[in-house]
């Protein structure tokens, strides 16, 4: 699974931290399934993310990519299997006696502090200005002072090119600007892993570029692990360390961008990729 | 028929009682606003038993008449418990509980109109439950339903004569008392009616103003 170590293209990205083989993976899906009523949408997934790793998740729509990401963000609970973050299970706690019991709120909130998510439809808070959207969680969750939170938020908004819109309300921003605010809002919490769920697919085509550019910069500069759910194949090829192709709730094929896009092995993947020209 | 000097003579007494009407209505409404919010929030608790208890309370209160609840609070409660309240306090409590269950439905419609993505964004940012409610959900849920809440204030005002059953001297009971002393029914009841009409008109005007403001604010 830890293909970065043997993989030559890792050498082309020398500024990237190379994962310590002995450290536990940052994220580990173990035999995860998810069922909505009768419909099993995730059918036994094993997947790991190393610290700092940039993982692209591709596949036809309806294959369960969003569900996989939402489960990491604790928005959905697996039907069976476990998701570990730094070796700790999201939905279970180990008691001093060694027994495991269902996680309580405190446990979930502690682990969730490592995880961030950016949504397809932004989900900005419409009743708050840009700066309030970005400072709310740092102040309330991290306990930063107003000044600290403001400073951190402005820096982050600067990175996404929106530090001139601090007091604007979301309704007055373009889709691309909204999504960049949403990215800043998630980044300011400094999670160790962030799920990006098709962050450009709700945007007008001419606005996709500005968001992808921001994402590339983040991928290049940050040692945060990223789970990139995307239909932008060039983008995935560009920034991913590893690409996972899934279909119908299973992982069909995974490998380096060069492998996946250059020498797809399965018929499934070949026909999927052919649709992107 | 209409005797102006008699009307002028009884007006101060009726106005004094009308102060009770307004006071009980406003205080009852204020209490209902708080109780309704608490009910609406706990109705979305993650714990099934809490949701069940809340639903039962709401169902129970809504399917019994206000008058029965007032009698219970005023006459039975002091016999069953050490609690006993004045007529005014009981009236406010009764109105607050009764209309709190109706207002909880108003809140519910506002809360349900907030997109699920707002809850999810709050969770992804690791906000606490309380912070999510008070900083994210309620500021979006409440403003659009303020006019609907205002309509319940008007309903409560018109319901205040019920409080006369527990001896609260609101304006209608005062009119009745006046009439029973002087045997002149026309003036006292007419004046009471006009006072209700004026108050309702003022409140309706306020509600429709509020509606316009909210529409402007939330259009687009
Ligand atoms: N809350 C839900 N209830 C029922 N079915 C759902 C729910 N969420 C997703 N699904 C179904 O699960 C499947 C996978 O969905 P999703 O994870 O969104 O796929 P993808 O992101 O790859 O398009 C789809 O068939 C979808 O209809
Ligand atoms: Mg999806």
UniProtKB/TrEMBL annotation, chain A:
Domain ABC transporter residues, every copy: 27-273
Database matches in Gene3D superfamilies: P-loop containing nucleotide triphosphate hydrolases
GO molecular function: ABC-type amino acid transporter activity; ATP binding; ATP hydrolysis activity
Keyword Cell membrane: yes
SUPFAM superfamilies the UniProt entry points to: P-loop containing nucleoside triphosphate hydrolases
Primary subcellular site in the record, as a coarse category: membrane
ATP-binding among keywords: yes
Key words, A-Z: Amino-acid transport, ATP-binding, Cell membrane, Membrane, Nucleotide-binding, Transport
InterPro entries, per the entry: AAA+_ATPase (IPR003593), ABC_ATPase_HisP-typ (IPR030679), ABC_transporter-like_ATP-bd (IPR003439), ABC_transporter-like_CS (IPR017871), Ectoine_EhuA (IPR014343), MetN_ABC_transporter-like (IPR050086), P-loop_NTPase (IPR027417)
Pfam families: ABC_tran
Region of interest (Disordered), residue spans: 1-24
Biased composition (Basic and acidic residues): 10-19
Name of the protein: Polar amino acid transport system ATP-binding protein
Automatic annotation (TrEMBL), chain B:
Membrane-crossing segments per the record: 20-40, 83-102, 133-154, 189-207
Record flagged with keyword Lipid metabolism: no
Entry keyword set: Amino-acid transport, Cell membrane, Membrane, Transmembrane, Transmembrane helix, Transport
Protein location: Cell membrane
Location of the ABC transmembrane type-1 domain: 18-207
Gene Ontology biological-process entries: amino acid transport
InterPro entries from the UniProt entry: AA_ABC_transptr_permease_3TM (IPR010065), ArtM/GltK/GlnP/TcyL/YhdX-like (IPR043429), Ectoine_EhuD (IPR014341), MetI-like (IPR000515), MetI-like_sf (IPR035906)
GO CC field: ATP-binding cassette (ABC) transporter complex
GO MF, any single term: transmembrane transporter activity
CDD domains reported in the protein's UniProt record: TM_PBP2
Domain of life: Bacteria
Membrane topology according to the record: Multi-pass membrane protein
NCBIfam families per UniProt: ectoine_ehuD, HEQRo_perm_3TM
Family statement: Belongs to the binding-protein-dependent transport system permease family.
Name of this protein: Polar amino acid transport system permease protein
Source organism of this protein record: Paenibacillus phyllosphaerae
High-level lineage: Bacteria, Bacillati, Bacillota, Bacilli, Bacillales
């Amino acid at each position: 699974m830890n293909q970065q170590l043997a993989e030559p293209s890792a050498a082309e990205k020398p500024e990237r931290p190379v994962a310590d083989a002995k450290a536990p993976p940052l994220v580990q899906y173990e035999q995860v399934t998810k069922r909505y009523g009768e419909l099993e949408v995730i059918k036994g997934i094993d997947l790991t993310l190393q610290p700092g790793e940039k993982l692209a998740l591709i596949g036809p729509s309806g294959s369960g990519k969003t569900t996989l990401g939402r489960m990491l963000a604790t928005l959905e609970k697996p039907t069976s299997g476990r998701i570990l973050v730094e070796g700790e299970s999201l939905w279970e706690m180990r008691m001093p006696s060694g027994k495991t019991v269902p996680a309580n709120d405190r446990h979930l909130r502690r682990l969730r502090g490592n995880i961030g998510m950016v949504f397809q439809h932004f989900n900005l808070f419409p009743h708050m200005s840009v700066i309030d959207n970005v400072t709310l969680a740092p102040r309330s969750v991290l306990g930063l002072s107003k000044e600290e939170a403001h400073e951190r938020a402005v820096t982050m908004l600067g990175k996404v090119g929106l530090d001139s819109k601090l007091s604007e309300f979301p309704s007055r921003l373009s889709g691309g600007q909204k999504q960049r605010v949403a990215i800043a809002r998630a980044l300011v919490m400094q999670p160790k892993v962030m799920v990006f769920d098709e962050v450009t697919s709700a945007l007008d085509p001419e606005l996709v570029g500005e968001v992808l550019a921001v994402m590339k910069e983040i991928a290049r500069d940050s040692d945060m692990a990223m789970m990139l759910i995307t239909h932008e194949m060039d983008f995935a090829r560009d920034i991913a360390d590893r690409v996972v192709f899934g279909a119908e709730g299973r992982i069909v094929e995974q490998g380096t961008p060069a492998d996946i896009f250059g020498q797809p092995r399965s018929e499934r993947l070949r026909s999927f990729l052919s649709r992107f020209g | 028929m209409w005797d102006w000097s008699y009307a002028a003579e009884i007006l101060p007494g009726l106005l004094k009682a009308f102060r009770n009407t307004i006071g009980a209505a406003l205080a009852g409404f204020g209490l209902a606003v708080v109780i309704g919010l608490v009910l609406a929030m706990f109705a979305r608790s993650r714990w099934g038993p809490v949701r069940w208890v809340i639903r039962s309370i709401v169902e129970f209160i809504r399917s019994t008449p206000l008058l029965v609840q007032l009698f219970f609070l005023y006459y039975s409660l002091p016999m069953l418990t050490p609690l006993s309240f004045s007529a005014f306090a009981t009236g406010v409590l009764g109105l607050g509980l009764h209309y709190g269950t109706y207002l909880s439905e108003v809140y519910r419609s506002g809360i349900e109109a907030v997109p699920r993505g707002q809850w999810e964004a709050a969770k992804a940012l690791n906000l606490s439950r309380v912070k999510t409610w008070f900083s994210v959900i309620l500021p979006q849920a409440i403003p659009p339903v303020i006019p609907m809440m205002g309509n319940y204030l008007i309903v409560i005002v018109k319901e205040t004569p019920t409080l006369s059953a527990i001896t609260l001297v609101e304006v209608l009971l005062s009119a009745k008392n006046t009439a029973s002393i002087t045997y002149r029914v026309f003036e006292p009841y007419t004046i009471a009616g006009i006072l209700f009409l004026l108050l309702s008109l003022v409140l309706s005007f306020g509600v429709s103003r509020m509606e316009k403001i909210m529409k402007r604010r939330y259009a687009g």
